[in-house]
Design brief:
This protein has 2 domains: 47 residues; 62 residues, High-Potential Iron-Sulfur Protein, Chain A, CATH 4.10.490.10. The N and C termini lie far apart (78 Å). Helices cover 40% and strands 4% of the residues. The chain has a two-stranded antiparallel ribbon with strand order 1-2. The model has no long low-confidence stretch (mean pLDDT 80). It has 111 residues and is mostly helical.
């Protein structure tokens, strides 16, 4: 039978190893949890860039007239119709959208 001292050293050794492993895995998990949502959301945003949205017009206070210089045709979420004056779609709002419309989801189109 091993002495008490040997058993204590063995127990301490396995505890230190498992604690290191736990800390290492916790660090990797933290990095994964930080990076993964951003990658996932960017993939979803890319995939949905050309698909019409599913938010009702009433939920975003859609109107068929512009609000100052803000109008659907200069919004980043607008999907133009076949002609500049034709009805288009939005990646957020459901249904046909006027290029001269506006809603509170409006965001300036990047240049």
């Amino acid at each position: 039978m091993k002495s008490d001292e040997e058993q204590v050293k063995k127990a301490q050794s396995s505890y230190t190893t498992s604690r290191r492993t736990l800390l290492k895995n916790a660090g990797l998990t933290a990095v994964g949890l930080t990076v993964a949502p951003g990658l996932l959301l960017s993939r979803i945003a890319e995939a949905d860039t050309h698909k019409p949205g599913n938010v009702p017009k009433s939920a975003v206070q859609y109107q068929s007239t512009p609000k100052g210089n803000q109008q659907c045709s200069n919004c980043r979420f607008f999907i133009p119709g076949p002609k500049p004056s034709a009805m288009g779609h939005c990646t957020i709002v459901t249904g046909k959208i006027s290029p001269h419309g506006w809603c509170n989801a409006w965001a300036k189109k990047s240049s």
